[in-house]
Design brief:
Pfam families: Methyltransf_25 (PF13649)
GO molecular function, one term: methyltransferase activity
Strand content: 25-35%
Shape: globular
Protein name: Class I SAM-dependent methyltransferase
Helix content: 25-40%
InterPro entries: Methyltransf_25, SAM-dependent_MTases_sf
Keywords: Methyltransferase, Transferase
Number of strands: 9
Length: 203
């Protein structure tokens, strides 16, 4: 994982927001899944590997007021901050999630960009330890990854691909699959990438 911070910083320095394959003006599936949790507006939510995603904008529109946005790229987060009011109730964290030590616990953990880049078991285990420590009992994890028939790489990096069964197995017995969504993401230039999103309840 050591080379990735510079890689993503480089991506966001040379590409505009809508020039990235993962750009969505409104991330419908994550918003629907967050809605499915029944979370109140004071629920603590973290978006892991957020980049310059519009998810935080949409959550603020819906009245959520305890949002943490984490990414490896300072440029990506600066771009997002520039879109939002200066008083927006958002904590900005420039950090590798594998090294992150949260100072609070969350009701919702959302990630549609980080976990599938972890192809080594040791890194996956480290990620899941951080997630488990950060999530409150009864909290929800929303993890989006490339599906089994999705891309095998992204931005020149190999990825791990999951369906509901594989992701459930990887999270383990402490998490119950609540909802599974297969999603075809259309890139800004019209190609289709197949994703799987899983909504999990932490026991």
């Amino acid at each position: 994982m050591e080379e990735i911070p510079n890689r993503w910083e480089g991506v966001y320095r040379v590409k505009e927001e809508a020039e990235t394959s993962w750009f969505e003006d409104r991330p419908r599936v994550p918003l629907d899944l967050i809605g499915a949790t029944g979370a109140e507006r004071d629920a603590a939510i973290v978006d892991v590997g957020a980049g310059s995603s519009r998810l935080v904008d949409c959550l603020l529109e819906r009245g959520f007021r305890r949002i943490t946005v984490l990414d490896l790229s300072e440029t990506a987060l600066a771009r997002t901050r520039a879109r939002l009011p200066g008083e927006a109730p958002v904590d900005w964290v420039v950090e590798n999630v594998l090294d992150w030590k949260p100072n609070q616990r969350f009701g919702i953990w959302h990630d549609r960009a980080a976990f599938h880049f972890l192809t080594e078991t040791v890194d996956q285990d480290a990620y899941l330890r951080v997630m488990d420590g950060a999530l409150l009992p009864g909290g929800h994890a929303i993890i989006g990854t490339f599906a089994p028939d999705g891309p095998t790489s992204c931005s020149g990096l190999p990825v791990a691909r999951y369906d509901a069964a594989l992701l459930s197995e990887r999270l383990g017995a402490g998490y119950q699959l609540v909802k599974s969504v297969n999603y075809e993401h259309r890139t800004p230039w019209g190609s289709v990438q197949r994703f799987h999103f899983g909504l999990f309840l932490k026991f």
